[in-house]
Amino acid sequence: MNMDLGTIWRVWFPLVAGGFALGSIYAAGPGPHGLSRQIGLIIAMLGLTGVIAARYTLGRSFSISAKATALVTTGIYTRIRNPIYVSGMFVIGGVLMMIKRPEMLVAFLVLIPVQIIRARKEAAVLEAKFGDAYREYRKQTWF
User: Fold this and answer.
1) Whole-prediction pTM
2) Can you give the CATH number for the domain in which 22 is found?
């Protein structure tokens, strides 16, 4: 892994900050520190790792809004077209398990279709730019 300043800001800073935030939620969050809280932390950390791996793989192709700068098909993108969305949902689900706030499940359930809509918009942009190459990639990957 190349340790330039961009890599530090894209990978290591979010990993450390996210790990610290999840550890703080685990330690100071409401409720007992039972098995479900530990499982929630593991799920959230796996999700954070997925987000960071996807972000690293995207490199400078990452953008907040859908842009087609490059068709990234390596790393975690060999299996999942939208690993940041999927992994982010694992982070949120893990946090919900840690804080034991069932009413927050509604927000989680609202986010799922929002992520699907975002993925479809992104797919349309990528298909318009990369055509058959994107369609073939889409056949070989999930979400």
Assistant:
1) 0.85
2) 1.20.120.1630
